[in-house]
Amino acid sequence: MTAPAVLPHVDAVTAALTGAGLTVYLGGVPSGVSPTPATPYVVLYPDPGRAETASLADDRVNFSGVVQLTCVGLTAEQAMSVSDRAIAALSVVLTVDGRASWKPESLDGQPVQRDDDVVPPCFYAPSRYRLRSIPS
Hints:
Distance between the termini: 11 Å
Structural class: alpha+beta
Number of strands: 8
Helix content: 10-25%
Order of helices and strands: HEEEEHEEEE
């Protein structure tokens, strides 16, 4: 068996969020993009994850990783609404090809904050989720 990869897991999170009608970016927002009343968004910041041992034989086929979701909107209410929709979208078992996965586990979050360093100013609410899977 090969070691598990992070990208299929991130793709599964992206699919769940876009399936809920959310706009998703990976690792940052493209230049010139800012939230609008009609288009708030989520930015994913995944860690590289790690292959964990599955047995005493040191088979490193289990996957564990963390992804931060930063929900962004023009208002605090909009950022919280995006966060609520993301929570609902991630309350299911993710589909990762060749893997059996758990529901993403909510680890923590931070209060909604205002970012005045961008134009127009916006609000954001970060939260982190643990992703786990084993070979199917």
